[in-house]
């Protein structure tokens, strides 16, 4: 069963755990969420947790060889990132509240995410 995560694809997040940038780590870096894997509790963040993959040299149709070392982002655990508040660009927790919206003469309750830091809607 997949877990419910507060972070969605396209959100701006900040790494809050791990080694500092001065020591070669990713803590403090901000990036956009490229993919969410709720079954593994992991998110893929742009520019964070970059790993080197070695690719075997193969011949292309043009006659050249393609191979070598490629860098890719690897998934990071969702507990190690926090959503960035759109108002002050600092990490915040996510809250949910129900608001009533009126559409076509009908009132409908909608769940919206908001920043616990400033109360602003995300």
Arrangement of strands in the largest sheet: 6-3-2-1-7-8
Report how far the terminal alpha carbons are from each other. 26 Å
Shape: elongated
Strand content: over 45%
In the CATH scheme, what's the topology name of the largest domain?
SH3 type barrels
Radius of gyration: 20 Å
Mean pLDDT: 92
The H/E string reads EEEEEEEEEE
Number of helices: 0
Protein name: Large ribosomal subunit protein uL24
Keywords: Ribonucleoprotein, Ribosomal protein, RNA-binding, rRNA-binding
GO biological process, one term: translation
InterPro entries: KOW (IPR005824), Rib_uL2_dom2 (IPR014722), Ribosomal_uL24 (IPR003256), Ribosomal_uL24_C (IPR057264), Ribosomal_uL24_KOW (IPR041988), Translation_prot_SH3-like_sf (IPR008991)
Your description of this structure?
There is one protein chain. By secondary structure, the protein is mainly β. The protein has two domains: 1-84, SH3 type barrels; 86-121, no CATH class. Helix content is 0%, strand content 52%. The strands form three sheets. Strands 6-3-2-1-7-8 form a six-stranded antiparallel β-sheet, with no helix packed on it. The model has no long low-confidence stretch (mean pLDDT 92).
């Amino acid at each position: 069963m997949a877990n419910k995560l507060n972070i969605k694809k396209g959100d701006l997040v900040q790494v809050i755990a791990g080694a500092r940038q001065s020591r070669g780590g990713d803590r403090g870096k901000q990036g956009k969420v490229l993919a969410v894997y709720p079954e593994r509790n992991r998110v893929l963040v742009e520019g964070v947790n970059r790993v080197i993959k070695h690719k075997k040299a193969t011949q292309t149709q043009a006659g050249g060889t393609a191979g070598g070392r490629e860098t890719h982002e690897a998934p990071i655990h969702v507990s190690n990132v926090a959503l960035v508040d759109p108002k002050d660009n600092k990490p915040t927790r996510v809250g949910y509240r129900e608001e009533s919206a009126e559409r076509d003469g009908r009132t409908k309750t909608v769940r919206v995410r908001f920043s616990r830091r400033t109360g602003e809607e995300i």
